[in-house]
Design goal:
The protein is of the alpha/beta class. The chain has a domain of 116 residues: Conserved hypothetical protein from pyrococcus furiosus pfu- 392566-001, ParB domain (Alpha-Beta Complex). It has 14 helices and 8 strands. The strands form 2 sheets. The protein has a 5-stranded mixed beta sheet. A 3-stranded antiparallel beta sheet has the order 6-7-8. The chain starts with 7 loop residues before the first helix and ends with a helix.
Length: 336
């Protein structure tokens, strides 16, 4: 059953067009059901933070950005298109839904933005006061509210949600990642895949960009491709080419995947064999020993028949030689 977004009442007509929640048909039993119940309770409690609160007008110059980054600093043209829509809406109709602020934890007299970034930016540009709800909340409630607001918008990409989830987990609000689950609104297996995807090289993620049309399964496919030897270097080489940056974000993603699928896996370099030689003082026979991995070979050379005769002698006395080797090895081990 789909969980109701507790922030929906103040998020419509906000930063970007709202996305209708997609119902998920998950079956939970035992510990999983308890986990989801606790997440629902956390989200509901965070939603109550806004119930009955008074909307006031705040000077946008007194507001700082959220401490939790939920955006890639690339593909600014996508953000500008969203911002232009919000700017025009506020210019013509005013700010219909408030932003959520909290008193700044380090800067008295200032506020920190929880959500409503584009509304805040538009108010600054238009010289208007920012209509907002101000609530003194914890950092954990902050990221839950920010994540829930992101989940209601259609313009948040999967990779941005994954990076936001990783940022929450790294802040160690809890040991079982319940805060991240509540903020992102996913089940534990999906969160695990998000964290795996978010662990890809930062340079590569920024080179690809938001890729809004690319969902979880395709991002996870790319992660598995990058786990193969040599593929990270191949992907970064393509991402650094001049033609790559001229493509749309989704095309950049597709180009990386196609390149890696076409590349032959790089074999690990084999370790060079170790060689030694031996010869007695009379020089009548010579031996060359080669150690390669789990194999060890001895080749005997001599003038006349000494090589064959010495080889027969070694073969006939291998049992005694091996026992002597084992005794010496045990003595050395016990001595240590």
């Amino acid at each position: 059953m789909a969980r109701k977004n507790p922030f929906a009442s103040i998020m419509d007509n906000g930063d970007a067009p709202a996305e209708r929640p997609v119902a998920r048909d998950y079956t939970f039993k035992g510990a999983s059901r308890s986990l989801i119940s606790s997440i629902d309770e956390m989200a509901a409690q965070a939603g109550k933070l806004l119930e009955g609160e008074t909307i006031i007008e705040v000077d946008p110059d007194l507001v700082d950005q959220s401490f939790a980054n939920d955006r890639l600093n690339v593909d600014q043209e996508d953000y500008e298109a969203d911002y232009a829509q919000v700017l025009e809406s506020i210019r013509s109709s005013g700010q219909n839904s408030p932003a959520l602020l909290r008193p700044h934890p380090q800067r008295p007299g200032r506020y920190m933005l929880v959500f409503g970034r584009l509304r805040w930016r538009a108010a600054k540009e238009l010289g208007l006061k920012l209509r907002a709800v101000i609530k003194d909340i914890s950092e954990r409630d902050h990221v839950i509210a920010q994540g829930q607001e992101n989940n209601a918008r259609a313009n948040t990409s999967f990779i941005e949600k994954a990076l936001f989830a990783a940022d929450i987990v790294q802040r160690k609000f809890d040991e079982d990642n319940a805060t991240a689950l509540a903020a992102i609104g996913v089940d534990r297996p999906t969160l695990s895949k998000m964290l795996s995807v978010a662990s890809m090289p930062k340079d590569l993620l920024e080179a690809i960009g938001r890729a809004k049309a690319v969902g979880r399964d395709r991002w996870y496919e790319l992660k598995l491709l990058l786990d193969k030897p040599g593929n990270v270097d191949t992907a970064l080489a393509l991402a650094s080419s001049s033609d790559f940056h001229g493509m749309p974000s989704e095309a950049r993603f597709d180009a990386i995947v196609a390149k890696l699928k076409a590349s032959k896996p790089r074999r690990r370099a084999a370790q060079a064999p170790s060689k030694r030689s031996w010869a007695p003082s009379d020089g009548r026979v010579a031996a060359e020993m080669v150690a390669s991995g789990k194999k060890f070979t001895i080749a005997l050379k001599a003038k006349g028949t000494d090589a064959a005769a010495f080889g027969d002698y070694l073969s006939e006395n291998l049992s005694e030689l091996y026992e002597a080797f084992r005794r010496e090895k045990r003595a050395t081990t016990n001595g240590d």
